[in-house]
Amino acid sequence: MKAHLARYERLIGSSEAKNDIIEIRGIRIDKTARRVWVNDEEKQFTTKEFDLLTFLAENPNHVFTKEELFREIWDMESVGDIATVTVHIKKIREKIEMNTNKPQYIETIVGGWVQI
């Protein structure tokens, strides 16, 4: 039986495989499964919201302009309005912040946003 289990794990990968997870003060982002929990409650994110949140979480304390975020998340080939970045940040805040008027995670500063 053990031989069959070992062979099965070799074929599909070990059941011990770890997902790539980012944790920031009550937020857990599972990059592998593309899932997000805020204070142990799973929240639903669109693809771009997830990509934007993950990008900011991977680059803490760095200020990004709307143009930089648009280029990074939507890529240079995208045709669109950079105002979409503002809309996505607002939607992300509604899902992760306790009080959107006093954000703890994504702070707006002159010239862009910073993940703190």
Automatic annotation (TrEMBL):
GO terms for cellular component: cytosol; protein-DNA complex. Keywords: DNA-binding, Phosphoprotein, Two-component regulatory system. GO terms for biological process: regulation of DNA-templated transcription. Pfam families: Trans_reg_C (PF00486). GO terms for molecular function: phosphorelay response regulator activity; transcription cis-regulatory region binding. Residues 19-116 form the OmpR/PhoB-type domain. It comes from Roseburia inulinivorans DSM 16841. This is Transcriptional regulatory protein, C-terminal domain protein. Residues 19-116 bind DNA.
